[in-house]
Amino acid sequence: MPIIKVEDISYKYSKDLVLEDVSLQVPQGAFLAIVGPNGSGKSTLLKLILGVLKIQKGNIELFGQPIRQFKDWQKIGFVSQKANSFNSGFPATVFEVVLSGLTKKIGLFKIPRKEHKKKVVKVLESVGMLSFKDRNIGELSGGQQQRVFIARSLVSEPELMILDEPTVGVDQKNVQQFYEILEMMNKQLGITLILVTHDVATVTDKVTHVACINKTLHFHGDACEYNELNEEELSSIYGHGVQLLSHNH
Ligand SMILES: Nc1ncnc2c1ncn2[C@@H]1O[C@H](COP(=O)(O)OP(=O)(O)OP(=O)(O)O)[C@@H](O)[C@H]1O
């Protein structure tokens, strides 16, 4: 059973379709990159999958259930591109931010137990941020904040994690580290990942599957297949003049 099944989805905000007849499946354990130029409908597709936008045409199933009936939202973690925008005055430590990912489990205003604190320490360690646990979140760099937000999502043990351009504003060196964390989550923790990104050149040798979207789905397959596409095939995927080539080309 695929974890996500998108069938014939079309969507428009006003007159024009921004998604047209998009169908794709995400198997359990996959690491899928959704790539496409600016304004190609990537975030819209995510919002439909996350239930933020209402389906106009087509169907989506999550964990085998039609999205309308789906209630297990705690199985899904989400990290948005705007996560790393805390100002330096924000009054919460790294530890507190990650602990807030357990609010549903602990219950609002209840006192966290030892096991909860242990979980926070464990996930902070896994993203390499344990030594920052008492620092104020607003005093960290964008890349460090982003890792803390990943940890906050991880702490509730999601089965699927969706990341919308998480590396925007993160420098190249930290981007590499960031992808290593994602690989660890996918391979060691067995979390299915969906990553929306512009950064095709960096991701295609790290992910298992690639979906190229530009209103319609132009390619959906495994990453090896994608890496073997020639230039002509790639430009027919993206349209001429769109600079989104894999580094193998
Ligand atoms: N709330 C909205 N109301 C009207 N139009 C919208 C809205 N959100 C997005 N759009 C339009 O829908 C199209 C697809 O937008 P979307 O955000 O899904 O693209 P994207 O691929 O995520 O883009 P980017 O890579 O720039 O983040 C764009 O033309 C955008 O202007």
UniProtKB/TrEMBL annotation:
**Which residues are in the ABC transporter domain?**
4-246
Q: Is the Transmembrane helix keyword given for this protein? A: no
Q: Which GO terms describe its molecular function?
A: ATP binding; ATP hydrolysis activity
Q: Which domain of life is it from?
A: Bacteria
What UniProt keywords apply to this chain's record, in alphabetical order?
A: ATP-binding, Nucleotide-binding, Transport
Q: Which Pfam families does its entry note? A: ABC_tran (PF00005)
Keyword field contains ATP-binding? yes
Q: Which family does it belong to?
A: Belongs to the ABC transporter superfamily.
User: Which PANTHER family does this chain map to?
Assistant: METAL TRANSPORT SYSTEM ATP-BINDING PROTEIN TM_0124-RELATED (PTHR42734:SF17)
The molecule here is called Zinc ABC transporter ATP-binding protein
